[in-house]
Amino acid sequence: MYKYFLGFRYLFSRPINILGVGGVAVGVWFLITVVAIFTGFITEIRSHIRGTSSDLILHGVTPDIPFPKVEKVIEENPHVVGCAPRIVLPSLLLGDIQADVLGGATSRNIFSTSKYASQAFVVLLGVDPKREEEVTDFRKYLLAKEVSPADRVDDPDHPFRVKPADDGGFGKPQPGIILSTLNAGAFRKGERIGVATVNLFPDTKNPLEPRDRPLDAMVVKRNLDISGFYHSKFFEHNKTTVYVHIDTARSMIGFDPLEEGFRPVFTEVAIKLDDYKNAPAVQADLKRRLRSVLASTPWALQTWEQRKSTYLKAVDHERALMKLLLMISLVVAGFLIFATLSMMVTEKTRDIGILSALGATRTGILYIFLFCGFVISFLGSMLGALAGWISCIYLNDFNEFLGRTFHVQLFPPQIYNLSRIPTELDPGWVIQVVVGAVILSLLFSLIPALRASRFEPVKALRYE
To answer: Which pLDDT tens digit goes with each residue over 116-129?
Structure first.
């Protein structure tokens, strides 16, 4: 029992040991709080990406494959609850393309005004609204609170429907296009804009391969009226994606539904499952089923995680790197414990000699200083874990206080597109941090403890 009694006495008689406790507490607090924020941020990002992506995506299909043929095979799988065809086209938003009475010719320079001096490169996503609602959160984007009532579509059931405009009888209402709220400052609902895209597909009118076409035959320009705006939680989706009806997109690449011989072409199919846990099995089954149907095309079937793997891996890598960097704070705390215990051993050299003369073993003296290191690391870990838990609970309140008082925000919403700082406290990680901090501190305590246990009693008694 003398080991623990002397250990407590040495600890409480030297206030400098508080420095070691504080060092461990700060290191544990950093590791728990920062990782909890990163984990919450990753969870939010994954949910945002998941909302803009379906469970599975079939892409790389050539336009000679009609959608009904593929749809039949996909829906044979019992875990598939919906699938939606899409047309994906890289495009450019322009000003209103003014055509003359004869049609076709551009009568003015669409880049001449300052409003359209900087063009917006976007992904033109042609969707069937009803089907898209079954596989993604498309309807929620249209009715999001971030979209002002004046900018919302008139009819969510027919979001691309545009009210007829008074154009003097020289034209007709154009098909609708839905832009992101990020474009709300440059464009207005009901405004007519031009969209330029490239027709990369051969069609019935021009069976030549794209590489044999002249450039002006491949570029497609179309006027579209803005029927409203949308807002998703994923900033990159808002920044890069605009929506049109899939028939509008088809007509832009030469497959007009009103013409004879129309083919319901698509460039990708979004697939929704009853449970994402079934994705690997459904993916393997659909690959086997589609192999004969799509034998002549370079198609691919991916989960949303595989499609966004580069982005998700980058975020996970940043979290792992952050953990590694924060571990340095625990190493610094370990050095503080090493320094304080080394000073303690030097000051207690005479006491060690007396204990040895009275019959204390080397192991007993070793345990005295290891016990001191354990108590310091345990108290520091508990205080750090408590501070981390409290920080995760009141972090948003503290952030709001900083904003009100000092006009400083830890997570600016305009950058991260988050109304609150996301935190997700993982009990398993907290246990790992606490246990790791104690073990690391004991390793640093072992060096001065071994030094103390190896003192010769006679030399220790002569120490002044």
So the answer is: 434 478 999 999 99
pLDDT band (50, 70, 90) for residue 229: very high
Asked if residues 121 and 300 have their Cβ atoms less than 8 Å apart, the reply is: no
Q: What is the pLDDT of residues 423-460, one digit of tens each?
A: 999 999 999 999 999 999 999 999 999 988 887 776 66
The answer to whether the beta carbons of residues 448 and 338 sit under 8 Å apart is yes
Whole-angstrom CA distances from 201 to 34, 59, 64, 219, 254 are 49, 15, 10, 11, 8
Q: How far apart are CA 132 and CA 86, in angstroms?
A: 9
Quick one: which of 10, 22, 12 has its CA closest to 441? 22
**Region 361-366: what's the mean pLDDT?**
87
Strands 219-230, 192-198: pairing kind: antiparallel
Break the chain into its structural domains and give their ranges.
2-48+312-462, 55-307
The structure tokens listed for 181 are: 């709220």
Nearest to 445 by CA among 334, 344, 362: 334
Phi and psi of 45, rounded to 5°? -60, -45
Residues 6+ apart with CB under 8 A from 225: 162, 165, 173, 174, 175, 176, 177, 190, 191, 192, 193
pLDDT digits (tens, 9 = 90+) for 63-105: 778 888 899 999 999 999 999 999 999 998 876 654 433 334 3
Which residue matches tokens 């009103």? 258
Q: What is the pLDDT of residue 206?
A: 44
Calpha distance 8→11 (Å, rounded): 5
Q: What is the mean pLDDT of the chain?
A: 82
From the list 30, 269, 294, 307, the residue with the least C-alpha distance to 131 is 269
DSSP label at residue 163:
P
* Closest CA relative to residue 265, chosen from 75, 82, 52, 62: 62
Nearby residues of 276 by Cβ (< 8 Å), 6 or more positions away: 55
Q: What are phi and psi of 303, to 5 degrees?
A: -80, 165
What pLDDT score was predicted for residue 205?
46
Question: Could you tell me whether strands 268-273 and 300-303 are parallel, antiparallel, or unpaired per DSSP bridges?
Answer: unpaired
pLDDT surpasses 90 at 33? yes
Residue 244's alpha-carbon distances to 48, 89, 132, 269, 426, in angstroms, are 21, 11, 12, 16, 42
Most confident of 171-175, 248-252, 327-331: 248-252
Contact between 44 and 423 (Cβ < 8 Å): no
CA atoms within 13 A on the CB side of 322: 16
pLDDT at residue 378 in the model = 94
C-alpha angle 248/87/59, rounded to 5°? 170
